[in-house]
Amino acid sequence: MEQSKQANFSLSNNVGFIMKHLVLIYSILTLVSIDIMAQNYPKKTIMDIMNVPADSLAAGSLNSPSVGDTVIVRGVVSIPPVVNFPDDIRKIMIAGNRNYAIYLQDQNGSEFAGMPILCDTANVASNFVRLKKGQLIEVPIRVTAFPNNNKLGTTQGEVLSNGIVEFIDDEIALPTPPAVTIANFNAGKVTAATYNVASGAKYVGMKVEFSNLIVSSSVKGTNQRSTIILSDADGNEIYLRDQSNHYRTDAVQLGSYTAPTEGTKIKKIRGYISTNSIAGQPVPFMVSPGMPEDLELDMGSAPPIITSIRSTRTKAFPSSDETVPVAIGVKQGALPILSVKTYFSFNGNALDSVAAQKVNDTLWTATIPTFAGIQNGTALAKWFVRVNDDSGLTLKSPLGDTTGYYYRILERAPKIADIREKLQSNGGSVYEGYSISITGTVTASASDIPNEAVNAPRVYVQDAITPYSGLFVRTTSPSSIVRAFPRGAKVKVTGIIRENFGVTSIDSVNAQETQLISTEGDPIQPVIVSTTDFARKSQGTSSAEQWESMLVKFQNVIVTDTNADGTSNFGEFNVVDASLYNSATESLSKMRVETDDGATTYGSTSATGKTVMSRGTGIKNLTGIMFFSFGNYKLVPRTNADIELGSVSVENDMTESSFDITPHPVHTTALIRCEVSSTKQAMFKIMNLAGQEVYSTQAINEYGNVHSAMIPAGLSAGIYIFKMLGDMEVQSGTFIVQP
To answer: What domain range is 443 assigned to?
Structure first.
C-alpha cells in the first residue's frame, strides 16, 4: 500500500513537472509568434498613419497615403469597446454588426493624433474586447478608408484576422480635448455644406470639444433613431452622430438618453470626429459623443421635447367614414406646456386643427376627423403637431414649414403604388408597420433570385408597369408558400410593410391569407431605362426610386469594370450606356449589376466558376430587378436569358488599330482580321478568361499590315481573349462564343 502511494505521488509530481514545462513552452511559442508577427509589419504612430499631405488636402482629399498598408499601430485607448468587461459586454461605439470599435489617441500629438480601430467580434484571440480606457497598446492593423473609393473617405484601422493586442502600459492620462468650432469642419447647412478639408482633416479620429451650439434639427425616423443637427451662431451645421450606443434612441441604447429637440441650447459637446454616409454620399465630418457626460445641455432654456408621434389607427388606408387617432409623447422642458394641437388638411385644402387632450405627464391624444369629399376613390391627408410652452415657444413635428405626416384615404383595394407613393424624401413607405394585402404578378421567383449566400431568396411582385408598382416580398421561412410562387403567376400576398435596408418590402407573410390565384398573371413588360437614371443617385431620387423592385431593361450597354469594388469583390460589375463608353462622363454614368444573388452563370470573378464579364463586353439587352443596397441602386439579372450579349467594344493593349470579327457573336467559326505591324508571319492566340491558352495558329498576311485567322469551331460558350502577335506590335481584344 505504501509503495503504491509513493508511486502515485511520484507520477503526480512528474505530471505536474510536465504540465508546467508544456505551459512554459506554449508561452514561449506564443511570444515567438507574436514577435515574428511584429517583425513582419512596420511599427507606425497614429500621426504617421493619419497625416494627410498638404497637396491632397488642397485637392479636397482626405485619403491618407497609408491606406492599404499593414502596420502595427501604437496608441492609448480613449474609449473602450464595451461597457465593463467581463461583467457587461454591450458595445459602446458601433461600426457595423460584426465589429467592436474604439478610438486610439497618439501619446505625443495634438494634430492627426486620433484613429478609429475596428475588430471583428469573431477574433476572440485578439483580446480586443478586454481593452480599458487609458491602456497603451500595440496592435497589427490594415489601414483602410471609410467610405472606400472616395476622396472624402477618412482613415481607420481594421485589426488583422489573426491580430493580437499587446498591452504596453496602463492608466495613461489622456489629453484635454482641443476646443474647435463647426467652421473648422463645415460652412453652411449640412444639406449643402462646404467641407473645410484643410482645417478639419487634422481632427479626424480625435476627441474635440464644441461650445455654445443649438439643436437646429432633431428628427426621429421610423427606425426610432434620431438624426440631430447642431448649429453655431453663424448658421454652420454639423451632424451629431449616434455612433455611441449611449446616444442611440432605438432598442440598443445604453441608459435613458432622450434626443434633444429643436431649439435646445448646448453648453458643451465633446466627441470624436467621424465619418458616415447620408443617402449613399460620404459626410466626412460628424461629431460622435461617446459617454453620457460628453453632452452638457443648457437646461435653463430647454424647450419641451416631442418624444414620439404616431397614428394609432389599425388600418394602413382608412376609409372616408373612419377617424384617425393620434398619440403624442411630450416631455416638459424648463416651462409648463401650454397647448398641444394636431393640424390637418385633405387634398391640399385649408388647414384645420384639433386640440390634443392630456392623458398624463408624457402622453397627449387627438383625433383627426373623417373626410367626406373623397374623389375617384381616394384622398391624401397631411397632418403635423405643434407644442407650445408658457414662454410662447412653438415646437413643430415634423420640422420644416411644409413638412408633414401623411396617409391616403381609400375606397378601393390598395395598389402597390399606394404603398410606395413617395411621401418621404428617402422613398420609404409612410405605411411601415401596417398589415396589408396586395395582388400582383410575380416578376422574380425564389429560384430566379435565390440569394444563396444567406439562404434568403427574394421574390418580387408587380401590379402595373407604371412607376412605384413593384414590391419586394421578403420571407425567411424555408416552408413559406412565397418560395413556391412561379414567375408570371398571379398571387395575393398579405403581410407587414417594412423598410428593409432602404427597400420597401412586405414581410411577416400571413400564410393563411397568402395564395396562388393563377399561374397566368398579367403580362409585365420590362421598363426601358438608362444607366444615367441610376448612376450616383442617392436613395429616394425619383428617377431611380420609381423603378425600385420593378422589372427593367437596359439596351446596348457595355461592361466598364469587371469588379465594381476595386480591391474587394462583392459579385458586382459595372455597365454604362454604349454611347457613354470611353467618354469623359463614363465614370459618372456607371450602373452596378449584382451577380451573386441571381441565378445567372455570369459574374465578376472566375473563382466561383462563373463567366467573367470583362471590360468591353457588349450587352444588347440587360434585364432584371432594380433594387437599392449599400448606398447604390443595382440591377439583379434573374437567369442567363436576362443577359443578351451583343457586339463588343474592346480596349487594345498597345495601339488603336482596328480589327474585325465576322460574324459576331460567334456561333461556330469566325474570321478575325487585325492590323498589326510585323516583318514576319504573325501568330494568333486564344485564351480563356483564366489566362489559359486554348488555341494557337499562324496568321495569314492578307495585305500590308492586315493579318487574319480563323476562330475554330468547338469552343464552349463564353468570353475569350485573343492576341495577334507581330514582332513589332500586338493587337488584342475579346470575343463572345454563343451556344
So the answer is: 416-518
- Report, in angstroms and rounded to the nearest whole number, the Rg of the chain calculated over CA atoms: 31
With b meaning 16 or more CB within 10 Å and e meaning fewer, what string describes 234-266? eebbbbbbbbbbbbbbeeebbeebebbbbbbbb
Say if residues 509 and 476 touch (Cβ distance below 8 Å): no
Query: Tens digit of pLDDT for each residue in 152-163?
Result: 889 999 999 889
696 Cβ contact list (under 8 Å, min separation 6): 683, 684, 685, 686
Residues in the chain, total: 739
Report the number of distinct structural domains present in the chain: 7
Based on the fold, state whether residues 467 and 360 are members of the same structural domain.
Answer: no
pLDDT digits (tens, 9 = 90+) for 325-373: 999 999 888 789 999 999 999 999 999 999 999 999 999 999 999 998 8
**What are 278-288's pLDDT values in tens digits?**
866 789 999 99
In a domain, 176, yes or no: no
Take residue 724 and report the three cell numbers written for it: 495577334
* Domain membership flag for residue 239: yes
Specify the CATH number for the domain of residue 706: 2.60.40.1930
In whole angstroms, what is the distance from residue 237 CA to residue 233 CA?
10
74 in Cβ contact with 138 (< 8 Å): yes
Q: For residues 157 and 209, state if they share a domain.
A: no
Three-state DSSP class for residue 686? strand
Type of residue at 636:
V
Give CA–CA dist 308/298, Å, rounded. Answer: 22
Residue 18: enclosing H or E segment and its boundaries? Answer: helix 2-40
Say which amino acid occupies 312.
T
Cβ pair 617, 719 in contact under 8 A: yes
The CATH number of whichever domain residue 616 belongs to comes to 2.40.50
CB neighbours of residue 35 within 10 Å: 10
Three-state SS across 343-404?
Answer: EEEECCCCCEEEECEEEECCEEEEEECCCCCCECCEEEEEEEEEEEECCCCEEEECCCCCCC
Q: Are 362 and 453 found together in one domain?
A: no
> What is the value of pTM for the model shown?
0.61
Our measurement of the distance from residue 387's CA atom to the centroid of its chain's CA atoms, rounded to an integer in Å, reads 36
Yes or no: say if 712 and 722 are a contact pair by the CB < 8 Å rule: no
- Dump pLDDT digits (tens) for 174-221: 999 999 999 999 999 998 889 999 999 999 999 999 999 999 988 877
Please state, in angstroms and rounded to a whole number, the distance separating the CA atoms of residues 254 and 257.
8
- How many Å apart are CA 441 and CA 443, to the nearest integer? 6
